[in-house]
Amino acid sequence: MSQPTLVKGGRIPSPMVRTTQGEPCERLREIVLRHQQTEFLRPIALHTVREFERVAEVASEIAGDGLVLDAGCGTGDSTRQLALLHPKHVILAVDRSQARISRAKQALSGLPNVIIARANLVDFWRLSLQSGWHFDYQYLLYPNPSPKKRQIKRRWHAHPVLPTILKLGGRLELRTNWDIYAKEFYSALELCGFPAKLERFAPQQPISAFERKYLESGHPLFRVISDLMDAGTEP
Ligand SMILES: C[S@@+](CC[C@H](N)C(=O)[O-])C[C@H]1O[C@@H](n2cnc3c(N)ncnc32)[C@H](O)[C@@H]1O
C-alpha cells in the first residue's frame, strides 16, 4: 500500500469529511422552524451552573468593552488570536474536553483578558442568556461536523439550542471545512431571519489548531458570518 504524502511538520494529512450526504438536509427547514417555535426545556447540569457562576464572577472583575465567546475553543490557539484581535474585550473560551482545556490553560496563562471554562456549550449558552448576557462576537470554529445524515441534530444549526445562540447577539462567525455544514448553517440563519454571508476563504495565518491542520492538508475552508440583533447585557 502506498504511503500518504506527509504535510508540513511530517504530519499525516487530515482526511476530508467522509459523508454520504451530498446536499443540505431536506429536513433542515422543518427542524429549524420547530426549534424556533418550541422551548428547549432540558435541565441544566449543576456542574455547568457552578462553572458558569465562577466565570461570571471573574468576568465581573475584569474591565472590558464587552464579551467575546470562543465556543469549542479546543486547545486555545484561536483564543490567543482572538485576545489579540479584541484586546479590550473579555474572551470566554469554552470547551467540554478536559484534555483540551488543560492544554488551553497552559497555553493561555498570563493573558489578562481570557477566561477559560470547561463546560458543555449547550448549557453555557442557556445560562448566558438567562443571565441577560450579550456577546459582541461569537466564534464557532470548526465544530464537529457530525457528518452522518442521522446525526443532523448534533450540528449546531439543527440543535434545539440554536435560538439561544441567536438571542445572544453580536457578530457570529462559523468556520468549517465541510461545504454542506456551511450551507446548512447559512440556510438556518436565513430561516431564522438573520441575513448571512457564506464564502470560501483562504486565511493567511491559521486561527486555530484545526484550521492549521485543514490548511496544511489542502482542504477548502468556508465561513458564514452574520450580524445578529443586539440582546441582553454584560455581566
Ligand atoms: C473539531 S474541534 C475544534 C476545536 C477548535 N475550535 C479549533 O478550531 O481548533 C471541536 C471542539 O468542540 C468541542 N465541543 C464539541 N461539542 C461541545 C459541547 N457540547 N460543549 C463544549 N465543547 C464542545 C470539542 O471538545 C472540541 O474541542
Short description:
With 235 residues, the protein is an alpha/beta fold.
Mind explaining what this structure looks like?
By secondary structure, the protein is an alpha/beta fold. Helix content is 35%, strand content 17%. The protein has a seven-stranded mixed beta sheet with strand order 3-2-1-4-5-7-6, with helices on both faces. Helix 4 links the parallel strand 2 (90-95) and strand 3. The mean pLDDT is 93. Bound molecules: S-adenosylmethionine (SAM). S-adenosylmethionine binds at residues 72-74, 78, 94-97, 100, 120-122, 141-144, 208-211.
Uncertain segments are none
Q: First CA to last CA: what distance? A: 57 Å
Count of DSSP E strands? Answer: 7
Question: Order of strands side by side in the largest beta sheet?
Answer: 3-2-1-4-5-7-6
The value of Rg in angstroms is 18 Å
Stated plainly, the CATH topology is called: Rossmann fold
Structural class: alpha/beta
Hey, roughly how much beta strand do the residues contain?
A: 15-25%
- The H-level CATH homologous superfamily, spelled out, is Vaccinia Virus protein VP39
How would you classify the quaternary structure?
single chain
